[in-house]
Specification:
It holds the Pfam family Aconitase. Its cofactor is [4Fe-4S] cluster. Belongs to the aconitase/IPM isomerase family. LeuC type 1 subfamily. Catalyzes the isomerization between 2-isopropylmalate and 3-isopropylmalate, via the formation of 2-isopropylmaleate. The protein is of the alpha/beta class. It folds into 3 domains: 159 residues, Aconitase, domain 3 (2-Layer Sandwich); 90 residues, Aconitase, Domain 2 (3-Layer(aba) Sandwich), CATH 3.40.1060.10; 181 residues, Aconitase, domain 3, CATH 3.30.499. It has 17 helices and 19 strands. The strands form 5 sheets. Strands 5-4-3-6-7 form a 5-stranded parallel sheet, covered by helices on one side. A 5-stranded parallel sheet has the order 17-16-15-18-19. It starts with 5 loop residues before the first helix and ends with a helix.
Length: 473
């Protein structure tokens, strides 16, 4: 009998019952909620006269609709009526059911996928679900995480389980070491570009190789977070010493015999040597440069030295139509070098790149420099804890001195569900995860890139290779 993949082990260890050849009833260790995917689920539960089965295994955050204006946390108010109602409903539901909530005025409020790991809620071997597609983030710590729909949220609240269709296994190995100035964000944009927007559809992707081992825990979160943009149902990295150090520093509830048992379990979380993967890909880290998206899908990307492609060179008729549509929306001519494209806005933040490591990179690059005239640049920390740490380290002061807006935490301009939006035609250098039409505001044009690349664009007023500024810093 062949060995098991890490994904197989995680599913098997949480299988309550086998439903058929493709489906299992999966136990959920932690369920995370936000204000916009949970209201209907609570209403459905109430209509059936049921209560949340295990409130201690739920956690909620107000993050998508909250404004990020620079006011004290205690004074934060959601003015937009529909958004305010969503937040109030979440608080009422959490209060009634005894669920922990990081509410609007909580100093530790933040983006769900930043808050949960930093508070030690995510441990290797867990199954963690949330009504948000970027729940794949938690695979960075050896946990199985994926997004769910509102009806599934209700099922978990009622039963702490999920009817789950098992994914296929894909392994992506990245050999060698990333060149200086190339980050996890560049790596994942490159991988999504190479795999395609549907290249991992139906798969749980396990990453391995020297380049992956070299990444910090936070950089691995960036990688796993955006793997969903290749269609993946999950992303995983086997726990190692990097994982252990990150988790143990943030999970004080683990100690003594419990910690030793946990460590022993974590050591079993790897793919067996004879495990079978339905698909495998190998890439060379040394060949990767900083990457930037040029179009309206995360796979429409080029290295910073590249150019907007010519649709007429695409042999497939449907792909050619899609390229033309993306080029028309983004407002760039075929053959335009991506370096040198002027930008109006810069957004640094999101569940992909709103952690303290990201902000340290930005601060190091902008020290002693100024945001270009005519550019509005915003930095939105991923959580209240990140914000406080950045202020304690002097990062916030450096960003403000350089001309960046220093905001309160939240999803902010990632998806324009609040008042941080692009105006029609504005072009933004963004550290977010999606560049869809209208994602950051109706008619807004988004170029995804790393925090270093976005900071460099803010200073130059156009897309540039951040490595030149890093070398001069």
């Amino acid at each position: 009998m062949p060995g098991m993949t890490l994904y197989d082990k995680l599913v098997a260890s949480h299988e309550v019952a086998r439903i058929d050849a493709e489906h299992v009833l999966l136990y959920v260790d932690l369920h995370i909620m936000n204000e916009y995917t949970s209201p209907q689920a609570f209403s459905g539960l109430a209509a059936r006269g049921r209560r949340v089965l295990r409130p201690g295994q739920q956690m909620a955050v107000v993050d998508h609709v909250i404004p990020t204006h620079s006011v004290p946390a205690a004074a934060r108010v959601i003015q937009e009526p529909a958004s305010s109602l969503q937040a109030r409903n979440l608080k009422r539901n959490c209060d009634e059911q005894g669920i922990a909530l990081f509410d609007t005025t909580d100093p530790l409020q933040g983006i769900e996928h930043v808050v949960a790991p930093e508070h030690g809620m995510i441990l290797p071997g867990m199954v963690v679900l949330c009504g948000d597609s970027h729940t794949t983030t938690y695979g960075a710590l050896g946990a199985l995480g994926f997004g769910i729909g509102t009806s599934e949220v209700e099922h978990i609240l009622a039963t702490q389980t999920l009817v789950y269709r098992v994914a296929r296994n894909m392994r992506v190995r990245v050999d060698g070491r990333l060149p200086a100035g190339v980050s996890a964000k560049d790596l994942v944009i490159y991988l999504v570009h190479r795999l395609g927007a549907q290249g991992a559809r139906g798969f749980a992707v396990e990453y391995c190789g020297q380049a992956i081992e070299d990444l910090s825990a936070e950089a691995r979160m960036t990688l796993c977070n955006m793997t969903v943009e290749a269609g993946a149902r999950a992303a995983l990295i086997a726990p190692d010493d990097t994982t252990r150090r990150y988790v143990e520093a943030r999970a004080p509830h683990l100690g003594g015999a419990d910690l030793e048992l946990a460590r022993a379990h974590w050591r079993t979380l790897y793919s067996d040597d004879d495990a079978r993967f339905e698909a495998e890909h190998v890439f060379d880290a040394a060949s990767i440069a900083p990457f930037v998206t040029w179009g309206t899908s995360p796979d429409q990307a080029v290295p910073v030295g590249g150019a907007v492609p010519d649709p007429e060179a695409e042999p497939d008729a449907l792909a050619r139509i899609a390229l033309r549509k993306a080029i028309d929306y983004i407002g760039l001519a075929p053959g335009t070098p991506i370096a040198g494209v002027p930008i109006d806005r810069v957004f640094i933040g999101s569940c992909t790149n709103g952690r303290i490591e990201d902000l340290r990179v930005v601060a190091g690059l902008v020290r002693g420099r100024k945001v270009a005239p005519g550019v509005r640049a915003m930095v939105v920390p991923g959580s209240g804890a990140v914000r406080a740490q950045a202020e304690a380290e002097g990062i916030a002061a450096q960003l403000i001195e350089a001309g960046f807006e220093w905001r309160q935490p939240g999803c902010s301009m990632c998806l324009a569900m609040n008042d941080d939006v692009l105006r029609p035609g504005e072009r933004c250098a963004s550290t977010t995860n999606r560049n869809f039409e209208g994602r950051q505001g109706r008619g807004g044009r988004t170029h995804l890139m790393s925090p270093a690349m976005a900071a460099a664009a803010a200073l130059a007023g156009r897309i540039v290779d951040a490595r030149a500024l890093e070398q001069a810093a």
